[in-house]
Amino acid sequence: MSIITNLTRTWLTRSPKPFIFKNEYDEKLPFEPCENLGLYVHIPFCKSICNFCPYCKTLYSEEAMNRYIDALLREIRLVGEGHAEKKRVTSLYFGGGTPALAAGRMKELICELEKYFIITEGVGAELHPDNVNVQTLKTLKEAGVTKLSIGIQSFQEKYQSILGRKSVDVRAMSAALAEVSFETVSMDFIFALPEQTIDDLTSDIETAFANGANHIAIYPFIDFTFTKSRVRAMGNKQKHALLDKVTAYCAEKGYSRGTIWTFSREPHAGYSSMTRDNFLGFGCSATTLLREQFKINTFSVEEYIGRINAGKLPTSLTIRFTPRQRMLYYLFWTAYSTRVDPKDFEKFFGMQLKKMYGTELRLAKLLGFVKEENGVFVMTPKGAFYYHYYENFYTLAYIDKMWGIMRREAFPKEIRL
Ligand SMILES: C[S@@+](CC[C@H](N)C(=O)[O-])C[C@H]1O[C@@H](n2cnc3c(N)ncnc32)[C@H](O)[C@@H]1O
Ligand code: SF4
């Protein structure tokens, strides 16, 4: 597996140099020149822990949450202070863990961020279905949240029990969502679960749209090596067929594909914390992508709080990019939106996409992975499948390895990928 990712990396970065993440960091993050900058805040608390979940999370207690939020407020100040003007950013996303558990303190966090940033495209927050009640929704809305993402996984008892989740009270959820409105209500599903059929998925999609959602995310199940999940991943052939059927179903129904994993029923609905050129991440495990570097905060909640209390950033590792490595990161993240506009690439790098990756683009067209529409490269359903497929390799070769180490060591010396 790592042979494929190593060869691809060597080919696309035109260098055998691996991605080298080192235990060093900038105390002042150079985000001013970054256009199309997004914000991300990680809240690592959950009321119960799911075996299949790879994210940085820990069991909720009010006391632990409050200490953590106090540290987050300080991290925001450490990053934001010392800049002459407020920086315009696109959106702000709260991810986790279960950010809705911090609903009561979200206003404070948003106000602190607004001292340094002007948020132009709204605020998103993730919820567990248990959090979808009128009181929590009202608190989130009053704090400034405009988009919700609810982790359903599946409405079907069979898959809820395979995943070790409780059944969702659809009626109560639907009633709460009808009472408190949001611009986007997204529901997350996991696909490619054992023996899952297209009927299982279309039934989930329609249940979501009939009960308050205007947007859905369908994530392929990934079996991370460090989780205790006993769920078997579906074979690739079956997965390909299922993804093709879901894509065709959504196209037929007129649900538009916003990113590789997401479909919306209303044009204004959107939820994606990934498809941004640059982002600043706050909280444990949060990542930051800037013009010339990518950095990751420590995964340990205690070490995170310790660093912040010492007046330092909680960065664990930083990679300083070669220009080609940055291009690869750019293309990988932009491809999530299923479109790559050469004009945007040229604006970002001052170089023409066709000059840098002309052969690869011709090959992708020849293989039927992309087509050109008014000068923009648009991924075909075949391209989207292979992107999913490659992303699975990438996730297991890079993310699985990195997160596996970072869960064990708060500040590893170096990681080479
Ligand atoms: C942070 S959780 C969402 C909010 C909340 N904590 C919850 O579980 O309802 C983010 C989403 O990642 C997805 N996810 C988690 N583990 C996954 C895995 N192993 N493979 C694919 N998707 C996964 C799930 O769809 C989940 O809803
Ligand atoms: S899936 Fe959601 S609730 Fe479950 S452990 Fe992960 S973040 Fe927590």
Q: How far apart lie the N and C ends?
A: 13 Å
Give the CATH level 1 class of the domain at 21-264. Answer: Alpha Beta
Number of helices: 13
Q: What is the name of the CATH superfamily of the domain at 21-264?
A: Aldolase class I
The secondary-structure class comes to alpha/beta
Main sheet attributes: strand count, strand direction, barrel closure: 9 strands, mixed
Q: Give me the side-by-side strand order of the main sheet.
A: 12-13-11-10-9-8-6-2-14
Percent in strands? 15-25%
Query: Overall pLDDT, averaged?
Result: 93
Characterization of the model:
This protein has a domain of 244 residues: TIM Barrel, CATH 3.20.20. The two termini are 13 Å apart. It is 41% helix and 21% strand. Helix 2 runs parallel beside helix 3. The chain is globular, with a radius of gyration of 21 Å. The protein has a 9-stranded mixed β-sheet with strand order 12-13-11-10-9-8-6-2-14. It is of the alpha/beta class and 417 residues long. The structure holds S-adenosylmethionine and iron/sulfur cluster. The site of S-adenosylmethionine has 19 residues, from strand 6, strand 9 and strand 10.
